[in-house]
Amino acid sequence: MILKGKNSVVTGSTSGIGLGIARGLAAQGVNVMLNGFGTAAEIEAIRAGIEKDFGVKALYSAADMTKPLEIAAMVASAEKQLGSVDILVNNAGIQHVAPIEEFPIEKWDAIIAINLSAAFHTIRAAAPGMKARKWGRIINTASAHSLVASPFKAAYVSAKHGLIGLTKTVALELATFGITVNCISPGYVWTPLVERQIPDTMKARNMTEEQVKRDVLLAAQPTKEFVTIEQVAALALYLCSDAAAPITGANLSIDGGWTAQ
Exposed, middle or buried by CB within 10 Å (0-12, 13-18, 19+), for 67? Predict the structure, then answer.
């Protein structure tokens, strides 16, 4: 296992895609620092479970992804407690669905902060160590919405488009240091985030839950199937491998053909 003994920070990793990636990394012998929402008991169960299942060190940071100082402190803490941050996965994300004229300003600010600015702050903090060690893997979870838009998602689509620009820029800056920087852009993955946005979409479009799933969520996905968390995690693990060393500045779609249309 070429990743054995490496250390990682995965934001938004107490559920969904982030947890899937964290567990995938741990299965390869990577120590992980988790971050995300949940009760203390839930988080401790997840953290202890990773240590028990995979025999790696698992830490947790409660850093608020809207607060730059807390984000920098999280990376510094991981470097101190684990010894390095070799793999950084920017996965934290929130969503809100509303028409532009009704879109709450505070929701716009929070989505831009968590889905875009947080990645800038983590990369800014982790890059010096990666450069010094001449190895690193930075993976940003974007979305099919990094390439195409959907109505009522102004902040999310803007943030995900911005994340691609950040990814490309940092990839160019770090290209000669053995560090790759890439985006994974899933289509609809069955996660708590997707599940939670269904009621808002039902209200916004006056639809039933089944109609939202069929006619909104999977309408654009030619396979008519949700992408799985495990499939996204497998792609993230591939990007961490030596085989993926030439892949940098890329946006890899895993969306059932959505953006091929």
Answer: middle
Number of independent structural domains in the chain: 1
Q: Is 156 a catalytic residue?
A: yes
210 is a domain residue: no
**Residue 173 neighbours by CB under 8 Å, 6+ apart:** none
* 130 closest CA partner among 257, 1, 250, 248: 248
What is the CATH classification number for the domain harbouring 172?
A: 3.40.50.720
* Angstrom distance (rounded) from CA 15 to CA 69: 24
Q: Does residue 223 form part of some domain?
A: no
Residues 138 and 170 sit within 8 Å (Cβ to Cβ): yes
Range of the domain at 114: 7-188+228-260
Candidate list 60, 156, 188, 238, residue with the active-site label: 156
Q: How far is CA 5 from the centre of its chain?
A: 22
User: Per the domain annotation, does 101 fall within a domain?
Assistant: yes
Its pTM stands at: 0.93
Strands (E), the chain: 7-10, 31-35, 58-61, 87-90, 136-141, 179-186, 251-254
Give pLDDT tens digits along the chain (261 positions): 689 999 999 999 999 999 999 999 999 999 999 999 999 999 999 999 999 999 999 999 999 999 999 999 999 999 999 999 999 999 999 999 999 999 999 999 999 999 999 999 999 999 999 999 999 999 999 999 999 999 999 999 999 999 999 999 999 999 999 999 999 999 999 887 788 889 999 999 999 998 998 888 898 899 988 999 999 999 999 999 999 999 999 999 999 999 999
